[in-house]
């Protein structure tokens, strides 16, 4: 079993980006972050993104709004950033409060600045295999992990657990596209799938993005499977100072002995998401030039 080290792979991408940004003369890429409310996970994610941007040499601007911000006020800020030639990428940190529709908000971001890849235009470009669009950062990170770990996808059976707009659907589209990595036969499973273990046992590559701790057990996979665990779940653990630990959607101890390759949680897909956001921001900057 080979552990896929997402930290190391993300680090190499960040080093590549740092060299590329360092060689730029004049203006540097700029990304704007919008955070609504003080959700602790959102605060931590945005801080991590700011630190990574700073390391690479990408400028970042943070726009904070209270939980009760009106849609009009939030959209006015997005419109201002859309119109600002100095801003190359715009990231809206999810989750948003209940009274603001996420899809409508993501679609407010200009497609050329939508470095998160959530705008309908960019999702449509992914469907059409038009490489000029932006791909959502987590699925893009999964593809990089697969590519840089030497996992063969062509002709393989990829099973994606989860059908979210943010991970499951784009990951499935990337795996079935006419490209490498890609050219796979893809099955998407979700909460309504019948005989789920029967399906997951057919997977050569399993992408687990279902948001349920330790959901995939040892009897749900075949020997030699490559496992990409996208889940980040908090489970109570009195032995930890924080009172919890992070686990994936895959029961690591039971699945890893059967896997040829597997990502850990934490330290697998997570770091890749931030690296790909920076990659998209540099692409947006270059397109704007």
UniProtKB/TrEMBL annotation:
Reactions the enzyme catalyzes: (6R)-5,10-methenyltetrahydrofolate + H2O = (6R)-10-formyltetrahydrofolate + H(+); (6R)-5,10-methylene-5,6,7,8-tetrahydrofolate + NADP(+) = (6R)-5,10-methenyltetrahydrofolate + NADPH
Annotated GO CC locations: cytosol
Residues annotated to bind NADP(+): 162-164, 232
InterPro entries with a match to the protein in the record: Aminoacid_DH-like_N_sf, NAD(P)-bd_dom_sf, THF_DH/CycHdrlase, THF_DH/CycHdrlase_cat_dom, THF_DH/CycHdrlase_CS, THF_DH/CycHdrlase_NAD-bd_dom
EC number: 1.5.1.5, 3.5.4.9
Single biological process term from Gene Ontology: purine nucleotide biosynthetic process
Domain Tetrahydrofolate dehydrogenase/cyclohydrolase NAD(P)-binding: 136-287
Keywords for the protein's UniProt record, in alphabetical order: Amino-acid biosynthesis, Histidine biosynthesis, Hydrolase, Methionine biosynthesis, Multifunctional enzyme, NADP, One-carbon metabolism, Oxidoreductase, Purine biosynthesis
Domain Tetrahydrofolate dehydrogenase/cyclohydrolase catalytic residues, every copy: 4-116
CDD domains tied to this protein: NAD_bind_m-THF_DH_Cyclohyd
Domain of life: Bacteria
Biological pathway: One-carbon metabolism; tetrahydrofolate interconversion
Example GO molecular function: methylenetetrahydrofolate dehydrogenase (NADP+) activity
Similarity section: Belongs to the tetrahydrofolate dehydrogenase/cyclohydrolase family.
Self-association state and partner proteins as the record states: Homodimer.
Reported function: Catalyzes the oxidation of 5,10-methylenetetrahydrofolate to 5,10-methenyltetrahydrofolate and then the hydrolysis of 5,10-methenyltetrahydrofolate to 10-formyltetrahydrofolate.
The protein, known as: Bifunctional protein FolD
Annotated source species: Coraliomargarita sinensis
């Amino acid at each position: 079993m080979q552990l896929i080290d997402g930290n190391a792979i993300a680090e190499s991408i960040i080093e590549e980006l740092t060299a590329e940004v360092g060689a730029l003369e004049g203006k540097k890429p700029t990304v704007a972050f919008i955070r609504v409310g003080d959700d602790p996970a959102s605060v931590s994610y945005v801080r991590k993104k700011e630190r990574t941007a700073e390391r690479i040499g990408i400028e970042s601007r943070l726009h904070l709004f209270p939980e009760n911000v009106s849609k009009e006020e939030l959209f006015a800020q997005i419109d201002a950033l859309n119109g600002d030639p100095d801003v190359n990428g715009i990231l809206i940190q999810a989750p948003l409060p209940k009274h603001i529709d996420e899809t409508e908000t993501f679609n407010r971001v200009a497609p050329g600045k939508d470095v998160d890849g959530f705008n309908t235009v960019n999702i449509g470009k992914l469907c059409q295999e038009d490489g000029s669009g932006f791909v959502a950062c987590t699925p893009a990170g999964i593809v990089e992990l697969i590519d840089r770990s030497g996992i063969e996808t062509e002709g393989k059976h990829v099973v994606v657990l989860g059908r979210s707009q943010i991970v499951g659907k784009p990951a499935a589209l990337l795996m079935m596209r006419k490209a490498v990595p890609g050219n796979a036969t893809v099955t998407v499973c979700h909460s309504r799938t019948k005989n789920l273990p029967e399906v997951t046992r057919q997977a050569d590559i399993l992408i687990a993005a279902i948001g349920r701790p330790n959901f995939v057990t040892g009897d749900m996979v075949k020997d030699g499977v490559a496992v990409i665990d996208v889940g980040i779940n908090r489970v109570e653990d009195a032995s930890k100072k924080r009172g919890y630990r992070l686990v994936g959607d895959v029961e690591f101890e039971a699945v890893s002995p059967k896997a040829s390759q597997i990502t850990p949680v934490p330290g697998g897909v997570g770091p890749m998401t931030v690296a790909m956001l920076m990659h998209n921001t540099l692409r947006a900057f270059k397109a704007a030039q």
